[in-house]
Design goal:
The chain has 9 helices and 7 strands, in the order αβαβββαβαβααααβα. With about 280 residues, it is an alpha/beta fold. It has a domain of about 180 residues: Rossmann fold, CATH 3.40.50. It has a 7-stranded mixed β-sheet, with helices on both faces.
Length: about 280
């Protein structure tokens, strides 16, 4: 226990050793600084709408337990989104010692029994784990039958968590790693407008000589070019937007016997490129 929060991490975890959390009690919250006034560089076309579907489905169970993996600072708005379902209990988890959590754990080895949850949310998480398919297998294991999963994974984004940033997926790739789940919905979270805004910002950051200059450059770019991301609302899930998406989502359900073939995933491609190898 660290500051009243359980640290449920295996003793042989060398990336996130348990001892590193012992001295973190007094510094478990990051200060926002200038980032608190920055315009955000992404839109999110799916989060509220898909989590409303997620919440309605999960709320049919009683009790209804939801696990948030990599919760960061999502506690405030997730609690608000799921507020219409007071019997839904949310467990916030993360590996980040600065996150607002109920417990610390590693997504590769979730410390819960099989079928413990009726829902799992992993928003902008799986790009930061070393083995995404292993983490998804853990999500599958801890979900009860017919349990819901909501995932967001970036596609066309630059590195945004330094050394802890490993993986990007197309929408087809996103579907592929969740092939053992029944798909309810999938699509674009943020489209080419957001992609372009990210690219401009990171291009300009190449010329920033230091930390303060980086922050001022990011603030300038986001202020001058924030209008670009508004095109995502117009483009939505258009085929070209799918191919150039900044981020995609998958909403699914654990269903016994579900296994979507690779052929079916390829045939289900919804982008514009009509290349064939056969």
């Amino acid at each position: 226990m660290v500051g009243g929060v359980p640290v449920l991490i295996r003793s042989d975890n060398t990336v996130f050793p348990r001892d590193a959390y012992v001295n973190s009690v007094s510094s478990r919250r990051r200060t926002q600084g200038l980032s608190g006034v920055f315009p955000w560089k992404s839109v999110n076309l799916s989060y509220k709408r898909q989590l409303a579907v997620f919440g309605q489905a999960v709320a049919k169970s009683d009790p209804a337990h939801v696990l948030v993996i990599g919760s960061g600072d999502q506690r405030a708005w997730l609690a608000e989104l799921l507020a219409p379902y007071p019997h839904v209990r949310i467990c916030y988890s993360d590996i980040d010692r600065f996150a607002s959590v109920d417990l610390y754990c590693d997504a590769h080895t979730l410390p819960f029994w099989d079928g413990a949850f009726q829902g799992v949310i992993a928003s902008a998480v799986l790009e930061h784990v070393l083995y995404p398919e292993r983490a998804i297998a853990e999500i599958h294991r801890v979900l009860a039958d017919r349990g819901m999963v909501y995932s967001e994974i970036p596609f066309m984004q630059q590195v945004h968590e330094g050394a802890y940033d490993f993986t990007r997926y197309t929408l087809s790739g996103h579907r592929r790693v969740f092939h053992d789940f029944e798909e309810l919905s999938s699509g674009v979270v943020a489209g080419p407008g957001t992609t372009l805004l990210w690219a401009i910002e990171h291009f300009m950051l190449c010329f920033a000589p230091g930390r303060i200059a980086e922050r001022l450059t990011a603030l300038m770019v986001r202020t001058l070019f924030a209008w670009l991301k508004l095109f995502d609302y117009v483009l939505g899930n258009a085929s070209a937007a799918v191919d150039g998406a900044s981020c995609t989502y998958f909403l699914g359900r654990k269903a016994a016997g579900t296994h979507v073939s690779d052929r079916a995933i390829i045939d289900g491609y919804s982008g514009r490129k009509r290349l064939t190898h056969l």
